[in-house]
Structures are given as structure tokens and as C-alpha cells.
Design a protein that fits this description.
Helix content: 25-40%
Distance between the termini: 40 Å
Number of strands: 13
Strand order of the largest sheet: 1-2-3-4-9-10-11-13
Length: about 375
């Protein structure tokens, strides 16, 4: 029996995975944050057939001088991209270390409505102490404390998405009723550092629950739909995938590809003159498109998807679109998402039942 198609995600923040990627970009630095640039890169990814795009974020600038620094919030960019695309999933990175879970859940539910069910969420952490000062919040110190904030925040967000039942909105002009108040619910969450009563201020997302991606070693697997796993080599990635315990598993892979103008190794060496490419514990491919196709084919035996982190977006995304995804399609290793299909459906994930729905059933229906 054949394995389901491999799902490909691509990280589109900034100019690429390398800190000095802007030096090889095809646009001027002041064009990075323009709507035209954001829409163009997303359109390339959608037309190529990627399942999902992710947009990194954090409260601190994404680099240091002499490199240009700055970004627009990932949720805001995701909403813009969602309105200008029709089939690709859109998943902003949103840390929960200092952000208010109530606000995060509202933003992501709104994104799912804007995208007609194509929203995802990459859960991450704010690790640098300066982030606490930027938020004006007490420092969340240590890995365990940050993991607690992610765990509690995820629990709150998921409960708030269920706090409106699917048919809570009536919109009856004849009776002047907008809501069935009996189908809105308090979540009554109390954690170690805060409490949330609810209900949400946004109706339940079209997907029921936004697709949640994250690292199973930082967030309980039961709270994730997609586990993101890494490792320096294929053996460690496959071992991490086997141990993830999530419904779907995506491998994290950084890529630098041969282009018509330079080899991947030469391109990396050119950027290394300005700054090192940080080791983030991910599998790294530096080579030809054909070699990447072979690597992804091998990974397809162990994972459900791969999130690619291109060295330089303007160079590597073109090669991925022109050579890699078509080759994978010819081998029937990937499938293009269909317009009008939710991200959950594309990933083969069921739409979750509402945890509060049974409470509202009449006695004769229980």
C-alpha cells in the first residue's frame, strides 16, 4: 500500500534562512516589507504547489547590524497572504511566552475565517531576556517555565476555539437574533500564572480548531496536530519522527541549491564571508535539486511532510518551483492542495468535535 503524498511547507520570513541572505536578494532592502513583496513570494509558493507557508516572528528584531533588520507581525502578514491566495495553507509563528493567549486565539480564529479554513499556527518561544522587557512583562526564566507558558496558552486557545459551538451564530433578521447564548461557553481555565474565563469574542474557526504545529520536545504531543522534528542527519530525523507521537510529523530541512549562476557551496561560501549560517539543529542540504529530490523521497518513508528553510528565497525558491516540486510530482510523491479545501482536509486531519457541544443537547437527544 502506497504512503500518502508528502506535504511540503516553506518558511518565507525575511530574505532567507541565512542572516546575510539579503545580500543576494533580487530586490532592494527597503522593498522587503512592502505588500508587493509579501504577495509575490506567497504567490510563487502557491503556484509551485506547496501545501503550507510559514512566517517566522518574534518581538525582537530578526538580526543585528550591519544587516537590515525589521519585520511586520506574522499574523498581520498571514492575513494579507490569506486574502491574496486560494489554496495554500498559511501558518504564522506566534510565541506564547509573553503574549496573551486570549488575544492569540482570537487572532488565529480570525485568520481561519479570512482564509476560509487554511490557517495554521507554529507555536514557538521567546528565549531572549530582552523579549520580556519589550513586552513589559516579568521574565519567564528557563526552558521549563517557557514550556509551561506554551502548554497553558495552547490549552486556553483550543478551549476558546470551542467556546462557540458551530451553530451559535444565528443571524436572523426576522427575529433580531444574532447569537444563541446557550451555545456560548465559559472555559474557566486556571493555570499557574493566570486564569481565563472566556468565552471567545470570535466565532469558532471554520476548521473547528486551527492546525497547530510545534516541537514535540517543547509542547506536549497531544496538543499538536503536526510535530516539527529536526536533527543533523537522516538517522536522527527519522528517530525523532518515530518518537514524535503527533498525528502528523514534518521534518525541518534547510536548503541551499545549485542555481544557473553558482553552485550551492559557492553561494553558501559567499554569504559566510559576512556571517555564519547558525546551526539550528536542522537537517541541511547543500547541493543540487536532484539530490534534494532524492533526500525528500527518502524522508517520505518516515515523515508526513517537510518544512523547507531556503538559504536565499529569491534564488532557492525559484529552483524549488522549477525543478524540485515538478520532479516530486512526476514521482507522485507530492500532491497540490485544491482550492476550497481546508488545511485540515489537505493534511488528512479530521475536523475536531466541539468539546462543549454535548452539553447543549436536549435531554431526548442525549
Amino acid at each position: 500500500m502506497s504512503r500518502p503524498a508528502l506535504h511540503l511547507a516553506v518558511e518565507l520570513d525575511g530574505d532567507g534562512a541565512h542572516p546575510a541572505a539579503w545580500r543576494r536578494a533580487a530586490h532592494a532592502p527597503d522593498q522587503l516589507l512592502t505588500p508587493r513583496r509579501v504577495a509575490q513570494v506567497a504567490a510563487v509558493a502557491e503556484n509551485a504547489g506547496f501545501t503550507l507557508i510559514t512566517l517566522d516572528d518574534g518581538v525582537l528584531p530578526p538580526g543585528t547590524a550591519p544587516n537590515p533588520v525589521g519585520r511586520i507581525g506574522a499574523v498581520e502578514r498571514a492575513a494579507f497572504v490569506a486574502a491574496s491566495t486560494s489554496s495554500i495553507g498559511v501558518a504564522p509563528v506566534v510565541p506564547l511566552t509573553y503574549a496573551e493567549p486570549f488575544h492569540v486565539s482570537s487572532q488565529l480564529a480570525s485568520l481561519d475565517h479570512v482564509s476560509a479554513g487554511r490557517a495554521g499556527w507554529v507555536v514557538s518561544e521567546e528565549e531572549q531576556p530582552e523579549a520580556a522587557r519589550a513586552w513589559g512583562r516579568p521574565l519567564v526564566d528557563g526552558a521549563d517555565a517557557r514550556a509551561r507558558e506554551s502548554r497553558d496558552g495552547l490549552e486556553v486557545a483550543r478551549a476558546l476555539w470551542d467556546s462557540w459551538e458551530d451553530d451559535a451564530v444565528i443571524r436572523s433578521v426576522a427575529t433580531s437574533r444574532y447569537l444563541d447564548r446557550e451555545r456560548l461557553h465559559y472555559i474557566d481555565f486556571t493555570g499557574e500564572t493566570y486564569a481565563v474565563k472566556g468565552p471567545a469574542i470570535v466565532p469558532r474557526p471554520p476548521q473547528g480548531q486551527v492546525v497547530v504545529l510545534g516541537r514535540p520536545d517543547r509542547v506536549p504531543a497531544a496538543q499538536l496536530d503536526v510535530g516539527l522534528v529536526g536533527g543533523p542527519d537522516l538517522t536522527s530525523v527519522t528517530a525523532a519522527a518515530a518518537a514524535a507521537g503527533t498525528a502528523r510529523v514534518f521534518a525541518e530541512v534547510e536548503v541551499a541549491l545549485d542555481t544557473p549562476d553558482a553552485t550551492a557551496a559557492d553561494r553558501v561560501a559567499d554569504l559566510e564571508r559576512h556571517a555564519p549560517w547558525p546551526d539550528r539543529g536542522r537537517l541541511r542540504h547543500i547541493g543540487s535539486a536532484g539530490q534534494l529530490v532524492a533526500l525528500l523521497g527518502e524522508l517520505s518513508r518516515h515523515v508526513d511532510g517537510v518544512r523547507l528553510h531556503p538559504l536565499v528565497l529569491d534564488e532557492d525558491l525559484a529552483v524549488l518551483s522549477r525543478l524540485v516540486l515538478p520532479a516530486l510530482s512526476e514521482r507522485r510523491l507530492v500532491a497540490r492542495p485544491l482550492p476550497g479545501t481546508s488545511l485540515r482536509t489537505t493534511l488528512g486531519l479530521a475536523r475536531p468535535a466541539n468539546r462543549f457541544a454535548a452539553v447543549s443537547l436536549p435531554e431526548d437527544a442525549r
